[in-house]
Amino acid sequence: MRIPKYIIPLLVIGLLYGGYVMRFAFLKPTTEFSFNAEGSAKLECIVEGLKCKGTANFFTKLYEGRQGIASIVTFASEHQAVFTYNPEVISPEKIREIMEADIPLRDGTKRQVFRCVNME
Questions:
Q1: Is CATH 3.30.70.100 correct for 29-119?
Q2: What's this model's pTM, rounded to 2 decimal places?
Q3: Which residues of 36-71 are buried (b: 16+ CB within 10 A; e: fewer)?
């Protein structure tokens, strides 16, 4: 059986187009959480340890009940977290401190899970 010469280039073009279209699926937020707070300032962080939906959910739970955090949007594929916060209540340094705190593990030890690589 002989394959026509134009089939392989069409398949390659189709796969390239499919990859281009699918990349938009990975640019959507992994998680979006809003808390009962008002906020106007934005803080974008590149977070080491933010890898998937599970770690993104765990990451946002660190900020539940914290005063001054209005919302958190995470992008696990980009290792990015975007905070909306009230600068009169909480500072970027405090947000980073919460993020980088040691977390107790099931075996009784503590370990730093998240590390802020860049803040803007």
A1: yes
A2: 0.75
A3: ebebeeebebbbebbeeeebbebbbebbeeeebbbb
Q: What is the distance between the alpha carbons of residues 63 and 60, in angstroms, rounded to a whole number?
A: 6
* 31-34 vs 69-75, strand pairing mode: antiparallel
CB 49 within 8 A of CB 113: yes
pLDDT in tens, 28-40: 788 888 888 888 8
- Exposed / middle / buried, residue 85 (Cβ in 10 Å: 0-12, 13-18, 19+): buried
Tokens in use for 107?
């075996």
φ/ψ of residue 114, rounded to 5? -115, 145
- Alpha carbons within 13 angstroms on the beta-carbon side of residue 67 total 3
- What is the rounded CA–CA span in Å between residue 112 and residue 100? 6
Torsion of CA 30, 34, 39, 45, to 10 degrees: -20
